[in-house]
Amino acid sequence: MRINGFEQIKAFYSWVFNEPEKARPTHISLYLFLLNQNNRANWVEWFKCPYDLAMHGARIGNKGTYYRCLDDLKRWKIIDYKKGINNFKAPLIKLIQLYDNEHLTEQVSVPLSEHLSEPQCVPQTVPLPVPLTGNKYKLLTNNIKLITKYIDQVVKFVNEIELKNDPQKFYDNQIQKTTNEKYLAFVKYLFGENMLKKPLSGVLSITDQLTADEFEKVMEACERKNKKIGDMLTKIENDKKYYKGKTSLYRTLLNWVEDRFIK
Questions:
Q1: Which residue range forms the structural domain that includes residue 220?
Q2: Distance from C-alpha of 216 to C-alpha of 41, rounded to nearest angstrom
Q3: pLDDT digits (tens, 9 = 90+) for 104-127
Q4: Final residue before a domain boundary, out of 81, 105, 129
Q5: Rounded to whole angstroms, how far apart are CA atoms 238 and 100?
């Protein structure tokens, strides 16, 4: 059964007032963000929500605090969630229907806000110095169109810039788009599961990191040339002349595969 968003919010705030010793601002903020994400996912039973996205949306600055809030909401039977397989997999979230749930809503409801007096409720109108001409509704909707016409492109552009500046977020994003286990192993190698026993900071400093699609092309080239991507990454990391000033990890790796670097 699909959740009714309005009824869910009403029931949630009834629970908040019923349990004054439990809910903190971080719990409320996180739950409302998860409710919004479930709404955007068309109220599916289980939905993915990466921890960094949820922390940003709920304005929670500490990862430990975020997971404690998740655990609390699950323990209070407000949500259910399943942890990701590893740090690169988003947890699965399920919102539990709260309305018609007697143990959450039977005690008290949210108090009503105080009514404004009659004079304050009456909106004041100010005459326009020059009457509007033409179709008033068309003028208003045209303004809205100008504001929102390119919003998707703007959001995509801002997100791409943010991902480029943060390799961890970039690879978190890429992991959500692929089931290639070799790519996951490659990401782990970059972030410390390698012979150097540390993140490859030099490789990770290259502006454009390796997408899942580019990784598959590099692996095809490695198989043709009988080369190992881990060996190439280690050599690049050990000499900054191979990564300093480079703008594309994809091109850098292909140059190694094709022996275009002078050793």
A1: 168-257
A2: 30
A3: 544 455 565 555 555 454 555 556
A4: 105
A5: 62
If asked whether residues 90 and 172 sit together in one domain, one would say no
pTM, two decimals, is 0.42
Q: Considering the domain boundaries, does residue 101 fall inside one?
A: yes
Residue 47's φ and ψ, nearest 5 degrees, are: -140, 150
Domain boundary residue, one of 105, 121, 138: 105
Greater confidence (113 vs 174) lies with 174
Helix (H) or strand (E) holding 222: helix 212-225
In a domain, residue 141? The reply is no
Task: Output the six-digit token pair for 56.
Answer: 């940003």
Q: Helix axis angle, 51-58 relative to 25-40, nearest 10°?
A: 120
* Structural domains counted in the chain: 2
- Dist. CA 55–CA 52, nearest whole Å: 5
Asked if residues 92 and 46 have their Cβ atoms less than 8 Å apart, the reply is yes
The 3-class SS string of 14-76 reads: HHHHHCCCCCCHHHHHHHHHHHHHHHHCCCCCCEECCHHHHHHHHCCCCHHHHHHHHHHHHHC
